[in-house]
Fold this sequence. Notes:
Strand content: under 5%
Structural class: mainly alpha
Helix content: 55-70%
Order of helices and strands: EEEEHHHHHHHHHHHHHHH
Distance between the termini: 21 Å
Mean pLDDT: 89
Amino acid sequence: MIDTPEEARGTLNGTVVRTVLPPAETTAAPRPPAPRENRLRALDGLRLVAALMVAGYHYGGRDGEVVQAWGTSPSHQFPTLHHLFAYGCLGVQVFFVISGFVICMSGWGRSLRSFFASRASRLLPAYWAAIIIVTAVFALPVVAYKTVSPSDALVNLTMLQQPLGVDRVLGVCWTLWAEVRFYALFALCIVLPGANRQRVILFCAGWTLAAAIAQGVNEPLLNMVLMPEYAPYFIGGVGLYLVHRDRRDAYAWGIVGVSWLIGQHEAVQDLWHAPNPAFFSTRSAYVIVLVVTFGYVAVAAIALGWLRWANWRWLTVAGALTYPFYLVHEHLGWVAIKAYHQTLHFPSYGTFLATVATMLLLAWLLNRFVENRLTPKLRTALARPRP
Length: 387
């Protein structure tokens, strides 16, 4: 990855990034002193929190296939906590805010080739491994979950299964499709012409307006490209990176504020419903707004340097495990829950904790033996200039 005086880095999906203070502008041309580095380890911790929120939702906050794993509805396994677990799906919104921050941070000062190589090499190795592992496990006779056809499994390796209407191997891959579309928009509008403050502000304002129009006219193509239901979170994260560069930037704060206002509305509209005994649980609109606000405030605290004290090395490890954990935790978690709860007769809470620990162990194995070996090689191959 290329270092520039203006580039700030953190750690997302295991990619090491760091913050570098920009040199003051001078009329002379002397080389500025070496900037002081500050790793944004708090981002790693926040990503782990978001991943555990989603895991709580998949294990105890919904019905569906997980009922087969538990033997009964999670509402019976967790009579009180299932209401809390139901809000775990909002971890995705927190992820998207973090992604907006870090993609702007890591794309600042990069060439298009370097940006593409960084993103592709970070996402694909663990993703390919997760597709292969889940497909193989679900094909075992002792696992009673439906597996996709071999043809559909191969298409899943492209990450384009959702727009192509192909059955998904990983339930969480819909969020990766949203991420890929964000990367494409950011690459075309910011990385290709070159990142600067004015261009990023226009990008955020233009995307916000275009997404609102797309939602108003309800045009499927525009909705797919502009993602009005998720755009506020990515845009809010980008705005928070501008705040990280200059906390007194009124335009940046304006971007964050507008994104939060729209984002909380989108979350309430998508996830709230009137109380109904037929539903698994009832989410409060106030709590939905509170959780979305938590995502923005937590990233803002990191952007402003308020969490600089959270500089423990284990957070870097947590950040490296978050992405592979996120990929495998849902489907393989069903298998683990059934083994611990129905076969080994672990109690509900013991099963929950054991399943999370097992998925973290699998994530560690994927990180060490897949990501650490393949990511540098793939990045080098994709970033190498061709004659």
